[in-house]
Amino acid sequence: MSALTEDLEVALAEVMAENERGLLARAVVVVEVLDDDGERALSVLTTPGLPDWDALGMCRFGVLSIENPAGFNGEGE
User: Fold this and answer.
1) 16 CB neighbour count, 10 Å cutoff
2) How far apart are CA 68 and CA 71, in angstroms?
3) Cβ(47)–Cβ(8) under 8 Å?
């Protein structure tokens, strides 16, 4: 998976830069894929070197911001 996560990091960094969103530091990406039989599966990819506990924290932040986009300010309030 190392080549895959390295390619993901390069692609995300390019997209962020092209859209003036800043310099990519780390990322967690959840993707749904279909196999040859049409079966769905989820895959979680992270940029290289991202510790699991940091990935979990980033996912939790994402869940909270999706659940309550108007009221979540990232400071636990």
Assistant:
1) 15
2) 6
3) yes
